[in-house]
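Quick review question:
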């Protein structure tokens, strides 16, 4: 396994140095780059993403780097928010609230060890399961993705060790993580105070955006590493849909 670790600034060294140390201790090969989504876009475009099995990307403020990477890479992308202002709330939301179809697995603020732990478990964690106590639209979106890819999926109430778990977390529910746990918060409301509540809960695990069951499922498929060609095809189909909409808009 080879991992690209990419951060937006050397000022983030206190965040990325423990990540690279953790990868070294785990015997995982990596390449470390410092490139900015805003200041060095051409250099990012030159990166050969297909030569990596996963990417850990981190940034602060308007933390667009993980999303920019995810737009170019079909494998798992872990986003690490750096705390520059608002205790990292701005960067956390910039990373976690990705549009449907382009997942980023967001760690808690400056907790890149969550990404390292997932990478250590990734080679053996092939079985995927949904964890929920009652069905929701987010669960239905996840099931649709798994059905589309022909993937087998289990179901339980709580995450299990040794598996890729998707935990659909309701407000007020207890957060439990085991194995690799992707957390999909579910809520009918999407007002600003709700974001603060979820942010306060995000002390562990790998997070996707509010009600983004489809992104949780796609991220699980990326981690399983058995659907690489299908994921590339899925991303290409999304690109063509946008181009078709643009063509119609411009006559």
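Suggested answer, residue by residue:
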């Amino acid at each position: 396994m080879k991992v690209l670790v990419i951060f937006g600034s050397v000022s983030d060294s206190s965040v990325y140095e423990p990540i690279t140390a953790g990868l070294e201790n785990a015997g995982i090969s990596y390449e470390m780059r410092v490139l900015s989504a805003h200041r060095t876009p051409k250099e990012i475009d030159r990166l050969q993403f297909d030569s990596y099995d996963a990417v850990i990307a981190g940034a602060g403020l308007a933390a667009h780097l993980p999303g920019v990477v995810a737009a170019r890479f079909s494998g798992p992308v872990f986003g690490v928010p750096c705390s520059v202002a608002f205790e990292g709330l701005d960067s956390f939301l910039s990373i976690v609230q990705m549009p449907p179809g382009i997942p980023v697995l967001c760690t808690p603020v400056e907790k890149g060890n969550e990404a390292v732990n997932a990478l250590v478990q990734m080679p053996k964690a092939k079985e995927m399961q949904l964890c929920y106590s009652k069905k929701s639209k987010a669960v239905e979106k996840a099931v649709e993705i798994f059905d589309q890819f022909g993937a087998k999926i289990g179901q339980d109430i709580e995450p299990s060790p040794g598996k890729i778990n998707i935990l659909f977390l309701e407000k007020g529910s207890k957060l439990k993580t085991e194995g690799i746990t992707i957390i999909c918060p579910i809520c009918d409301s999407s007002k600003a105070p709700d974001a603060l509540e979820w942010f306060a809960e995000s002390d562990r695990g790998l997070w996707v955006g509010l009600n983004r069951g489809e992104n949780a499922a796609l991220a699980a498929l990326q981690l399983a590493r058995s659907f690489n060609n299908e994921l590339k095809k899925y991303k290409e189909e999304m690109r063509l849909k946008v181009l078709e909409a643009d063509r119609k808009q411009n006559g």
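Why it works: The first strand starts at residue 2 and ends at 7. Residues 228-249 form the longest helix (22 residues).
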